[in-house]
């Protein structure tokens, strides 16, 4: 039994929350989560809540995993910390690097470690610019990214991201970042068919390269499926066309795998799902299933070989390759492998969830349901099937639905007026039934609030 009111009061007084309207929080009070097991969270009042977001898209193997706790404890006793600077290494970082080269495509064999996806993307900005300097093309510095993409909260990560609200605070983006359209057919496709729109959005990359000058463009960065932007699943025509453009033009391709990596789409990486061949892949989240903070930059051989020619790369973090975080990640990957979790998402629980989720598209409040692997969205719509009509003001209905969902014992996230989910990959069929029931109840309750 926890003293919820006292905890909330102390939280409001001393804790500054990320991505939170602090004034609103101080009136309402935060939800206090005290423990978790599998797909279930428990709050300080003893309520059980189904974690439909796997924390922040990260607890892929589910909460409360004993093997990870034991691996972490054993590593802490053996070597709780040492760095990897200046020609130093240790067994956990070596083991994890090896494991990653086993599960990534054959052309990726090196990894640089950091503590988060944001740091991974910061690192990448410096890596790609340095790459072209070493190649004797120092003018190639601009990185093309997408509107409504998300690549983290550090200065470079938020600059690569295409979130207007983030850019407005603190004078972002930094110079040398250019944003193009996202492949968001439901919201921005106009009269085009999904396939036509997918081609148009992909060719925005080609048009941007031409407008900026190919000799100025270093790289294109994109999430295989945009997560925080609202689980934007691109039309089928999008990635093949981007692949064509990247193969014809002299630019690096960065697939941000922070959400899509480690089984989320029923493949080890989102790039595997779409048949992409990235030069660099930032990873984090599912790398340790969120048990400890660890991220990394996976590097294609030609990238690591080129950077090697440049002498010392003046970049690194105290916690690059932290042994305890590496131990957590090793245990996590071993569990994903030995329990066949990725395969299960591809061929068993994934299709089971998708079928039920897509059927929610029939609900009177849902304009579109989409899901790949175990990441999905419901576009709430005021006048389905008209895609052009939006709730006014944008976002209020999403927030209402999110709050009702929480009261129904389910975490769903709201992005504008879309409800998005990304449950732990270990969710069982019975839990999926329960999950869908809670979503349906939430949609019904939201609709009845709106029609009151
Ligand atoms: N890239 C993507 C695609 C993400 O979704 C996120 C976080 O949500 C990040 C990068 C940033 O990762 P982190 O929050 O670990 O810094």
TrEMBL record:
InterPro entries: Aminotrans_3, Aminotrans_3_PPA_site, PyrdxlP-dep_Trfase, PyrdxlP-dep_Trfase_major, PyrdxlP-dep_Trfase_small. Keywords: Aminotransferase, Pyridoxal phosphate, Transferase. Gene3D superfamilies: Aspartate Aminotransferase, domain 1, Type I PLP-dependent aspartate aminotransferase-like (Major domain). Belongs to the class-III pyridoxal-phosphate-dependent aminotransferase family. Its cofactor is pyridoxal 5'-phosphate. Pfam families: Aminotran_3 (PF00202). The keyword Transferase applies. It comes from the Bacteria. This is Putrescine aminotransferase. It comes from Rhodobium gokarnense. Its EC number is 2.6.1.-. GO terms for molecular function: transaminase activity. NCBIfam families: PRK07480.1. PROSITE patterns: AA_TRANSFER_CLASS_3. It is an enzyme of class 2 (transferase).
């Amino acid at each position: 039994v926890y003293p919820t009111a006292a905890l909330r009061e102390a939280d409001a007084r001393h804790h500054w929350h990320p991505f939170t309207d602090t004034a609103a929080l101080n009136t309402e009070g935060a939800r206090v989560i005290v423990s978790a097991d599998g797909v279930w969270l428990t709050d300080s009042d003893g309520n059980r809540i189904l974690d439909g977001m796997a924390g922040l898209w990260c607890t892929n193997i589910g909460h409360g995993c004993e093997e990870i706790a034991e691996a972490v404890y054993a590593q802490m006793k053996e070597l709780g910390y040492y760095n990897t600077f200046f020609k130093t290494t240790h067994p956990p970082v070596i083991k994890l690097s090896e494991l990653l080269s086993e599960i990534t495509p054959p052309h990726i064999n090196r990894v640089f470690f950091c503590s988060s996806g944001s740091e991974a993307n910061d690192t990448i900005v410096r890596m790609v610019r340095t790459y072209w300097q070493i190649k004797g093309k120092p003018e190639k510095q601009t990185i093309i990214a997408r509107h409504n993409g998300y690549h983290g909260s550090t200065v470079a990560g938020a600059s690569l991201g295409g979130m207007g609200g983030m850019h407005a605070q603190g004078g972002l983006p930094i110079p040398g970042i250019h944003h193009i359209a996202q492949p968001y057919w439901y919201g921005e496709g106009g009269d085009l068919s999904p396939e036509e729109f997918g081609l148009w959005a992909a060719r925005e990359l080609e048009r941007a390269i031409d407008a900026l000058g190919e000799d100025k463009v270093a790289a294109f960065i994109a999430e295989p499926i945009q997560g925080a932007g609202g689980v934007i699943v691109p039309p089928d025509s999008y990635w093949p066309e981007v692949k064509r453009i990247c193969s014809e033009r002299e630019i690096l391709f960065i697939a941000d795998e922070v959400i899509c990596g480690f089984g989320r789409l029923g493949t080890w990486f989102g790039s595997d799902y779409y048949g992409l061949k990235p030069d660099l892949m930032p990873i984090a989240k599912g790398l340790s299933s969120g048990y400890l903070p660890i991220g990394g930059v996976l590097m294609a051989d030609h990238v690591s070989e080129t950077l090697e020619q440049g002498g010392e790369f003046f970049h690194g973090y105290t916690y690059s390759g932290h042994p305890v975080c590496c131990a957590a990640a090793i245990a996590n990957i071993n569990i994903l492998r030995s329990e066949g979790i990725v395969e299960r998402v591809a061929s068993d629980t994934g299709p089971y969830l998708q079928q039920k989720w897509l059927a929610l598209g029939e609900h009177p409040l849902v304009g579109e349901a989409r899901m790949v692997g175990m990441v999905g969205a419901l576009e709430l719509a005021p006048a389905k099937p008209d895609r052009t009509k939006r709730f006014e003001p944008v976002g209020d209905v999403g927030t209402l639905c999110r709050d009702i969902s929480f009261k129904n014992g389910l975490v769903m996230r709201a992005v504008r007026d879309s409800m998005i989910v990304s449950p732990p990959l270990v969710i069982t069929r019975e839990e999926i039934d329960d999950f869908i029931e809670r979503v349906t109840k939430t949609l019904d309750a939201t609709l009845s609030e709106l029609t009151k």
